[in-house]
From TrEMBL:
Record key words, sorted: Hydrolase
InterPro entries (UniProt xref): RibonucZ/Hydroxyglut_hydro (IPR036866)
Protein's name according to its UniProt entry: Glyoxylase-like metal-dependent hydrolase (Beta-lactamase superfamily II)
UniProt lineage: Bacteria, Bacillati, Actinomycetota, Actinomycetes, Streptosporangiales
Organism this protein belongs to: Streptosporangium album
Hydrolase in keyword set: yes
GO function term, MF aspect, one: hydrolase activity
Amino acid sequence: MAHRLEAPVIRGEVPGPPPVFTDAPDWERDFYENKPALPSAPPVRVDRELEDGDVIDFGGGARVVGHPRP
């Protein structure tokens, strides 16, 4: 399961967004810029795309709460 806006990234259809360091402390930016390259995660199947307000059959009915990207 994945939010419908994130599903194409998880399936490997489009690249994920770059990190945003607008309000990040300098140490966080330095850490990211100097870390070794990490391999990309392999694409995986998304069985169900979710929207804000959807209810999934988990724990007696969990309601999906969407959170916009910064």
